[in-house]
Amino acid sequence: KKAEDLDRKIALMVAAALRADYGEQYSSIKQIAKHTNASLSTIKKWYEGRNPPNSCNLIQLARHSPSVLRVLMELVGKQKVWERYKSELS
Questions:
Q1: CB neighbour list of residue 10: distance below 8 Å, 6 or more residues apart
Q2: pLDDT by residue (tens digit) across 44-65?
Q3: Rounded to an integer, what distance in angstroms lies between the CA atom of residue 6 and that of residue 44?
């Protein structure tokens, strides 16, 4: 049950992050596909918050999406590292 709850939380967080960085267009899914080896239907499920990405795809997404990187840092309890990184970019 706890693993299912965490998967659901991750799915929703990643979906929000992808929408923040890529918008709501169908072309966004195609753009994300260029950064992962995932199928369009798999990416659509991430975008809709139905499924979380696997660990490999989560890392690939974090490399190309600042919002997904923030989610990843939050999930591992490193919000302060994210805040420091973000302030260095400014």
A1: 52, 58, 71, 75
A2: 999 999 999 999 999 999 999 9
A3: 20
Residue 1 structure tokens: 């049950």
Residue 87: band (very low, low, confident or very high) from pLDDT cuts 50, 70, 90: confident
Mean model confidence pLDDT for the chain? 90
The pTM of the whole model exceeds 0.70: yes
Output the six-digit token pair for 47. Answer: 């975008």
Over its C-alpha atoms, the chain yields an Rg (Å, rounded) of 13
What does the pLDDT average to over 6-18? 96
Phi-psi region for residue 49, left (φ > 0), alpha (ψ -120 to 50) or beta? left
Q: Are 65 and 25 in contact (CB under 8 A)?
A: no
Structure tokens at 25: 């267009």
